[in-house]
């Protein structure tokens, strides 16, 4: 995880110093007043909390969802480690049925998701979902698409994350996990995890390859985006 002060996809407003929050606006589509464009407003916090900042991986995954929007219409989506939830909010805006999730213990992050959904006039379910924990609520989920932006940053959590991903993929045949992450060791890490968990990559992209230049210029790093499915499904 690498923060980027000049949030490439958003235009920040001056922070309200009392509660340390700031509002950023994120634009998708043509900026020439075309009908085929949306914007999402996000509440971020200056306080140190991973879940209250729009990370670069999130800008990249949200742009990918936007560019693939026809694929998301009427589809059930779960975003894991959603934090400020930009990809999930874009998915909801283009017609997906979205559940935004984050660590069950991070109530401030979950509250912020509700506030941001309301702010954007978007109906999303918000749910505490801690990776590797099997609370009752996870059994009700049947996502066709699982999203995760910058959820591969703490190696001690990788197995719990992949256990949750595998569980959700198995619950919903034909489903896919789409994640964007900072690539520090080639594709080896992801490959290792996929083999270990019986998963397979069906698409691997350089995160900057599809990002409009005006967004890319504000971001840095080596960010990849992968689509992952159950390996036995990929063989068919
Ligand atoms: C680097 S932030 C990314 C946030 C957001 N997806 C983005 O890219 O802007 C990682 C997110 O994962 C969440 N997270 C960390 N560990 C978690 C766990 N064990 N279970 C569920 N969520 C977790 C954090 O609360 C945080 O929102």
TrEMBL record:
GO terms, biological process: methylation
Keyword Ligase: no
Superkingdom classification of source: Eukaryota
One cellular component term from this protein's GO annotations in UniProt: cytoplasm
InterPro entries: Methyltransf_16, SAM-dependent_MTases_sf
GO molecular function: protein methyltransferase activity
SUPFAM superfamilies noted in UniProt: S-adenosyl-L-methionine-dependent methyltransferases
Keyword field: Methyltransferase, S-adenosyl-L-methionine, Transferase
Coiled coil: none
Protein's UniProt keywords contain Transferase: yes
Family, as annotated: Belongs to the methyltransferase superfamily. METTL23 family.
Protein name in the entry: Lysine methyltransferase, S-adenosyl-L-methionine-dependent methyltransferase
Origin species: Helianthus annuus (Common sunflower)
Taxonomy of the source species: Eukaryota, Viridiplantae, Streptophyta, Embryophyta, Tracheophyta
